[in-house]
Amino acid sequence: DNSSEFIPKCRACRRQAREHSGDHHEGLSSDEELTPTEEDEFQKSKDNVLEDSRKIFEDVHADFCDIRKILLKFQEWKEKFPDSYCDAYISFCLPKLLNPLIRVHLISWNPLEQNFTELEEMPWFRAIEEFGDAENISESK
Description:
Organism: Molothrus ater (Brown-headed cowbird)
Shape: elongated
Helix content: 55-70%
Low-confidence stretches: none
Subcellular location: Nucleus
Main location: nucleus
Pfam families: GCFC
Structural class: mainly alpha
Number of strands: 0
InterPro entries: GCFC2-like (IPR012890), GCFC_dom (IPR022783)
Radius of gyration: 25 Å
C-alpha cells in the first residue's frame, strides 16, 4: 500500500513550501490556514450575521429588549408583591428569559482576540450581578 508512504511525503512538501513562502507559523498545519478567498468569505458571512443580529429587536419596545430594564421590572414586582413573585419561581425563570438577549450580545464577542472585553465588564453582566446582589440583600432582611 503506497498511500502510507504518500501522506508523509505530501506533508513534508507542504511544510517545505510554507517555510519557503515566509508565511509559515510554527504549530499551525496547512489545514488551519485560510486562503485570502476563505478569509473574505468568512468576513462577509460574519458581517451578515452581525447585521442580522442588530435587526432582531428593532421592532421591540425598549423596555423589553434591555436587560437592565427587564430586571428593574422584576425588582419592582418583588418589592410590591413578594408573595406572588416567590410563587412564580422567578429566580428559575430569569435565565431562560434573559438567554436570547444575552446571546445577541455575545454574537460578536470573541475571547480569542487580543482586546476582547471580559464577561464581567459587559453591561448586561453587571446588570444581572446587581440584580442578584439586590435579591440577596432583600432575602437577608
